[in-house]
Prior knowledge:
Layout lengths: L6 H15 L6 E11 L10 E4 L3 E8 L9 H14 L11 H13 L9 E3 L5 E3 L14 E2 L2 H10 L13 H8 L3 E24 L2 E24 L5 E16 L10 H20 L2 E10 L7 H12 L3 H14 L4 H14 L2 H14 L4 H21 L14 H8 L2 E4 L6 E5 L8 E6 L3 E8 L2 E5 L5 E5 L3 E4 L1
Parallel strand pairs: 2-6, 2-7, 3-7
Antiparallel strand pairs: 1-10, 4-5, 7-8, 8-9, 11-14, 11-17, 12-13, 14-15, 15-16
Helix pairs in contact: 3-6, 7-8, 8-9, 8-12, 9-10, 10-11
Amino acid sequence: MMVRKNHLPGLVLVVVIIVGIMPVQQAWAQDLKCFILTPPEQILEGVQKIAITDFAVTSSYDEQTKPGGSKNIDKILTTIERVSDKSRKDEPQPFPDAGKKLADLLISKLVEADRGVRDVGSGFLGLGRKEGRSFQQGARTNVFVVVERERLDQVLKEMELGQTGLIDESQVGEVGKLLGVDAIITGQVNAACKDSWGKETRTRKKNKVEEKYEVWCNSRVATASTTIRIVDVETGQLIGTREASNKQELKKCEGDYGTDLPPANQTIDVCLQNIAGQLINYFMPRFEQKKFDFAKVETKEFKRQAELAKKSIEAYALDDAFIQYSAILDQDPYNHAALYNIGMLHEVVGNYKQAVEKYNMAAQLVSKEDKYRKAVQRVDKQERFWAQLRALGVELIEHDFSASEEEKTAAVLPRVKISGSGSDRVELRAEPSQASQMVLRVPGGIELEVIAVAGDWYNVKLLDGRQAYVHKDRAKQIR
């Protein structure tokens, strides 16, 4: 008999790893990931229409030729020629369009209505994907009217600035009035890239013997740094300024897949894209992902309502979850978990006054629950944030959570599960008697609401609204 000695330790190791990376079960029933609008660092009060000019550019590109030995006279001459060219005054400036590209990137982000919203990971190790969304009606990130580039170019041409596309702060007032804007964003960008060659020592096996060898590697360091200035057109005053920078490092060695580095301007473009994200967050609101942990309803009597609410939250059906928690409160007005969860539903959609009211009630019932007190503080902060956002013309539309008496009653009605499988059929009667007329036959395994109990019979509500009776032998009550 063969004994596989090494399998058990390997299995144990795998189990340990999986257990180690699995999240610890918390005492919370359900969490919801969604996006909440947050204000920018700098509020531009009174600014509605804005223009962005091309940025001034200073740049450099140091490209080193791959060394080829003393016999490679062509490469030596090429290096000498490049050094000579750098001393020429008429040498073209590297990355000359970096200022225009950065301006265009900022403009493209200014017009995005849901900037920051993305799909979110879910499930084990985040392998599943769920649609990223916000439940705040009226929340948006495109708070400014942006002047189109064609209109800006036309005005600059009229002022005989069309060749450079640049303006200084002394010209902001005149340009801004011609454009009809409240503020103009100007700035400068410095782009630098350096490619250098060097040798790296590596190890390989040859005839089962390890040997060291050297390869040439081309390394790149690209950086871009920017300063923007936001100028009020009417007053000429500086109302905002921000610096941002980004660095990218690449390396390609002999033997690597694709031995050449990408064009230098592509690497600078990556720097500019990252810088644009930093700059736009300075003066524009953005959506940020938040995780909302709903409290666990401990009362066994309301297990079914809590489970239905959990499933509704998973499906983003917040109104259905509200009905379930409201039904619990109708029967148990002092259920602190249901109060807290209703408060959280209000917070998710931006009904902050209602959220604070429910959170305070839950905190009064369970004063030692730290999460309840923190929720009150969190919503107070959000209300202050939205006072700032309203200055940008962003207004939340209050979500109308409502639960009718009929809906709440239906939510707490017991249910029965019909016996058997989907291939079986169970007869439902018009009256609580086997001699009564059959209404229809339903498949096993389905769940139906119970309206009343008559002896050994359940009076159930069908999907089409009709009522019928099923014997207790053919159905099991569930909660």
